[in-house]
Give the backbone structure.
Amino acid sequence: MIRRLLIAAALFLGLLAPAQAQFADQASYAGTGAGTANAQTITLNNVGAYTQIVGVLVKYVPGATNTGSATISVNGIGGITVKKPSPGGFVNLSGGELVTGQTVVVMYDGTNFDLLSVVSTTVGASNLATSALSSIGTPTNLQINAAVGSNQLTVTLCTTNSGSNTCNAPTAANPVLVGFRDTTAANGDPVIISQQATLAITALSTSSFGCVTATTCRLWVVGINNAGTMALCLFNALSGTNIAPINEAANQTSASGTTGGTSAQTYYCSTSAVTSKAIRILGYVEATWLSGTGWSTTPSLVQIFGPGIKKPGDVVQDLVTAGTSASPSQSITPTSAANLVRLSAAMNCGSGTANNADTVTFKRASTTLVTETIGGPAGSTSTTAAVTGYLDAPATTSSTAYSIAVSGSGGCSGTVHGSMVEVQEIMSSLESANDNVSLRMVG
């Protein structure tokens, strides 16, 4: 009864419109805000001091999206810091909480405006900067785009907020977060770089990175921490059958220039040469360079790095055939034409001829990869042959058969006691002691 009398009195005095009389809390709706992204302003009737709205829920529609810590000023009284809840209490905004066109609710608690509304169903990358998700090594909010034009190759770091292959530049409100190791070897803390602007590297048509002409080449996309500013680098790990590792646990040095180069196993970056800086693998691009032309075809594969993606040194697949065949064979279908195949084989058989000299041949399909002549033990009619550590570059994604055979005066004409062929697809380098090992025979 008393509330009705008060509302009637307010109507009589002209203080409330009829709709406001029915919904009295409409008086705390401030409409669309103004000001700047991080210093927003609103107009609220009958407010001359903040003490008058302690505990009042104030609603308004931001006219701009904040990019960091923000304030709200009511009726020009003065900017009040906006805080948001967190597990450790209320904290300053970090960007993207006050979104253009999305109504927010704040309450003045006597010191700050507390943000009480949920303004987005997604968590912006900037809000992950201090969380475990951004410090375990997987870049956050990352997309890589690769394109060719005028026989040049351009690789660009983008954000994933577009939900498509569209390349959107990172911003303060929507950054790409990349975690690096500390440049100081004795420190074990992660260093997070928030990339908030366009970042790209363009390789000239003459920048081959040591790629073999007309052959699929994998260029690793690597971020390098240049004193708190990230640069984008490209790195071809393959030189012949020798593949260099990309060691994120050690600081690396880049070459001069910003448009690529002609050497394999060299970091070429979007900034001038840097020395002893921390790096992070971001992904890789598979493309084809043509001598005399350059980068003229669209990259066949763009892959961002993350869990389940093989790093340099990893075995992609391992296939083995074993038994008593005199000419054992094992087929493998490489997942990428940029990968190598590591071969191992062994055979133990009776030749039927004492002191024989036999030839062991290792083939890829009908192509002879390597041969070696061996002699059986004196007075013996048995031959033992072993092939280990041979690296092949088939440059194909088609099924390919590898085999071993023994021929000569005995030619394994006797009993085959055992034979084996093993093929491994290698994503990148082996240990240095095993790199580019030639054929070795025992027997």
Notes: The chain has a mean pLDDT of 82. Residues 389 and 434 are 7 Å apart (CA to CA).
